[in-house]
Amino acid sequence: MTPMFEDAEKDPVLDSAVFELEEEPLRTELVLRQYELLKRADRSILVVVAGIDGAGKGSAVNLLNEWLDPRHVRTLAFGPADEQEAARPAMWRYWYNLPAKGHIGIVFGSWYAPLIAQAARKKPDAEAVDAMAAAITRFESMLAADGVQIVKLWFHLSKEAQQARCDELLSNPDTAWRVSDIDLKVARKFSRLREAGRATITATHTDAAPWVVIPSADARWRIAATAREILKALRHSDVPTLSPAAGPTRGRVKNQFAGLDYSACLDKDEYEKRMLRGMARLGRAVRSRDFGNRSLVLVFEGDDAAGKGGSIRRITRALDARQYGIMSVAAPTDEERARPYLWRFWRQIPALGRIGIFDRSWYGRVLVERVEGLAAPGDWQRAYSEIEDFEAQLVAHGAVVVKFWLSITQQEQLKRFHKREKTPFKAFKITEEDWRNRKKAPQYRQAASEMLLHTNTSAAPWHVVATNDKRLERVTVMETVAQALERALGHDAEED
Amino acid sequence: MTPMFEDAEKDPVLDSAVFELEEEPLRTELVLRQYELLKRADRSILVVVAGIDGAGKGSAVNLLNEWLDPRHVRTLAFGPADEQEAARPAMWRYWYNLPAKGHIGIVFGSWYAPLIAQAARKKPDAEAVDAMAAAITRFESMLAADGVQIVKLWFHLSKEAQQARCDELLSNPDTAWRVSDIDLKVARKFSRLREAGRATITATHTDAAPWVVIPSADARWRIAATAREILKALRHSDVPTLSPAAGPTRGRVKNQFAGLDYSACLDKDEYEKRMLRGMARLGRAVRSRDFGNRSLVLVFEGDDAAGKGGSIRRITRALDARQYGIMSVAAPTDEERARPYLWRFWRQIPALGRIGIFDRSWYGRVLVERVEGLAAPGDWQRAYSEIEDFEAQLVAHGAVVVKFWLSITQQEQLKRFHKREKTPFKAFKITEEDWRNRKKAPQYRQAASEMLLHTNTSAAPWHVVATNDKRLERVTVMETVAQALERALGHDAEED
After folding, report:
1. Do B398 and B352 form a contact (C-beta atoms < 8 A)?
2. Are A84 and B82 inside 8 Å of each other by CB?
3. Rounded to 5 degrees, what angle do the CA atoms A56, A58, A64 make?
4. Which uninterrupted H or E stretch holds B48?
5. Over 50: is that where the pLDDT of A248 sits?
6. Given this model, what pLDDT does residue B237 score?
């Protein structure tokens, strides 16, 4: 049942004798449970603090820092987006600041701020409210599925109690500074904010991340209720489980590579002419004024030795080194391992006006991690929709997302493996692992087919390229990127 | 000897047959050496790319990414500072982006950009040039001492060769986009930029980080020379060693705590009155418009159980949770361990308008790491001057740095240890380690005395506070912070 405000507006008071009895056991168990949490590599707690202004949210956070061991608590307070944040999708800063597993994060001015602000307008845009609530629900479900337990606290009190609290602070010059202009305004708009709170809670109260209303007029009640909720979350030691992902087809998916023409090729003159023109198109597009409000995300996946590195190098020759970054996906660091799967990619997404090139990517989840059994089936299955959501957020914020699957035939791969082994400065590219992976080619091909089927969205389409001929591959990649960018910028695309 | 431009301006050409002979062994050894580097936890290489525009710096970087395994090369390109960068000291972004040990970083638009720009003015400010060069030299020496080998390449060619290169690009519409307005301007100002380069190289050519001039008119010469320099650095497998730090007195330093009055105390009424007033002063100061151009860095060090946590909590009650962050110094993560010592603190310093509270700090280097033998003597000894430099950069950029050493008597510490052990929700604060440290009190006191002596600068002074009486401690800390901030903001400090 969705929690309501009525009980909180009765402004209940906790007797000081009762509080004193409760304090020591509460504090003791809080600290002990916090230490248990700290040992866990699979769980963190995120406390979302929201509510009516003047309800004592700040004191509640101070209290948690006092009662818990503050070395393992991270308070995250978000104000208006700064330049760096504004240049990335709205959720970026929340991802970026997620606490590590084992830790407790307390979030102020969270992803709820825009939703509450919209809901509190004189005439809220119902569609915007629904869209924001849906985005939040998806985000929180993903975190929950990845071991982040979310505790959402709405601090509440009656209009009269709020006014009394405000008056008391104002009456003393040494406390009056605590009451900001915003607080005074809030008092006048109590009922509208109350309705916004109700709408927010109703739209975002889920099993994965439920809301709790904390009666806040009485400091002791507020403190005890807050501590009890955190304790409840700490006690709940299971990793939250979600219903299995709805998404992927479980049966055998049609081979997505069957129709590719691996024999097509390009002669040298044609290659050089088209390459130079493609580079010029890309070079002009990324240097255009319009690109300042867009970004470019290039994803390179494909068979081993299919030519990812070579294609990426050609692309970068058209770019200014100050404008792009290449992310080669390697083993995650311990800071990355301690956070949800997509964190390390959020961490790396380019700002507006910039280009991010991913040499392998978040698709590893449904490729190597799936095939090698590094991710549990439930985890890689839900990745399809998580990735779709992730890319949709990039695109909604102005990113042009171009994804390449580079494909070669088994024979061509074998030829390239042998050639690499014989070239001293390329031998490093071939390891035992490549030979092992080659033996699993059918499984990889099956995983790739399924991935293409599930994540080929109109917002972020896949381009499957046959790369037996390197010249044709590189020209195709260059022209595809140039064209995608020109279209997005509304420039007249040149003929290909 | 400082490298000069004369040879490079002869625009030497490398015969293609010679190049072909050299290419394979160069590439092979580069890759093999890169793999050796990768295994090392104590070394990284930073390649600084500078030089005359149009000399092919971009192609040289592309080449390195092609010849090395690009997964372990990180290209760092800096343009004008963004909002986040501008809100922190100038060196912050270079620190923040340092590659991990084992890796190679290539830096474009580096810390040399402002120096070169200044030196290239019609009338360069000689003092500014000297100051910038000195700051760069200190920075690079610190990196070198911490295992970062710096290779500085100046790409150079004659004025005629530059013009010819430009003309060739402009003659084809598919390459003309490569020539920016800046390049055209640069061509007209060749001799001034040449002089700026000479001044820069002369002022910053050190043993720890020498410059090399790469003749760049001929692509093959440029490529081979660049690869040879990187290879030379990779071959040089020793960790760079510096002459021992000049700084600290090696003899016994006078006990800095001898004159403290541990018996002073404050009654409850006086405490509450002064505390409320102090909080109000601090609350107003950090909310003032002027504070938007300043930041506040609070450092808390001191004896175990001396009251750091309690003092920090009182301070935060005067602050808006959106404005401050508390950094509790814990064991470094693997990303932190892979970088120079100060990196994890640079990572955390507050932007303008914000407050960073450090519960223990960079002083751990000369306290716990010294006493417990976790840092080699040479490392903690040079930390004194490194820290002074670090804090000076914070202050120069507008930070108010207030450092507290909280001191209690041995008897009072024992009392607090026992009390903590008996209070269930405080028992977590006392560990075996605290008892072990207590036995080493004389060594810790000696290290602290020496630290106070060496790092008590006028820019960032220490405040040594006797904290046997908690009330007096908290009021003193609050008032000291409020006063330091009021003074820095030019507000009339209220009487204490």
Report:
1. yes
2. yes
3. 105
4. strand B44-51
5. no
6. 62
Buried b (16+ CB within 10 A) or exposed e, A427-466: eebbeeeeeebbeeeeebbbbbbbbbebbbeeebebbbbb
pLDDT of the residue at A273: 96
Separation in Å, CA of A375 to nearest CA in chain B:
23
Q: What is the pLDDT of residue A249?
A: 47
Q: Which residues of chain B have pLDDT under 70?
A: 1, 180-187, 237-254, 493-496
**Separation of alpha carbons A460 and A397, rounded Å:** 13
Dist CA B204 CA B141 (whole Å): 11
- Between the alpha carbon of residue A347 and those of residues A334, B32, B157, B342, the distances in Å are 14, 31, 39, 22
Region of residue A438 (phi > 0: left; psi between -120 and 50: alpha; otherwise: beta): alpha
Residues in chain B: 496
Task: Show residues of chain B in contact with A344, CB under 8 Å.
Answer: none
What residues in B contact A47, CB-CB < 8 Å? none
Contact B414, B468 (CB under 8 A): no
Q: Which residue of B has its CA nearest to A31?
A: B425
Closest CB to B425: pick one of A28, A83, A333.
A28
Interface test with A, best of B71, B110, B329 (most A CBs within 10 A): B71
ipTM: 0.80
- Contact between B322 and B426 under an 8 Å Cβ cutoff? The reply is no
Distance from CA of B27 to the nearest CA of A (A): 5
CA of B238 vs chain A CAs: smallest distance (Å): 24
- The chain A residue lying nearest B106, using CA atoms, is A321
Flag if B333 and A333 touch (Cβ within 8 Å): yes
Name the pTM for this structure.
0.85
Contacts of B309 in chain A (CB under 8 A): 70
DSSP SS3 for A371: helix
What is the rounded average pLDDT of the residues A356-378? 95
Q: Which amino acid is at A393?
A: Q
Torsion, Cα A96 A41 A363 B39, to 10 degrees, reads: 90
**A63 → chain B, closest CA residue:** B313
Estimate the share of chain B in helix, then strand, then coil, as percent rounded to the nearest 5. Answer: 55, 15, 35
In this structure, what token pair is assigned to residue B426? 């405080």
Say whether B77 and A334 touch across the interface (CB within 8 A): no
Residue contact B334–A330, C-beta within 8 A: no
What's the rounded Cα separation, in Å, for the pair B275 and A140? 41
Nearest Cβ partner for A27 among B24, B334, B425: B425
Query: How far is residue B81's CA from residue B75's CA, in Å, rounded to a whole number?
Result: 17
Q: How many Å apart are CA A77 and CA A45, to the nearest integer?
A: 16
Q: Compute the 3-state secondary structure of chain A and give helix, strand, coil in percent, each to the nearest 5.
A: 55, 15, 35
Orientation angle between helical segments B181-188 and B159-170, nearest 10 degrees: 150
| Strand extents, DSSP E, A198-279 | 211-215
User: Going by C-beta distance under 8 Å and a sequence separation of 6 or more, which residues neighbour residue B310?
Assistant: B470, B473, B474
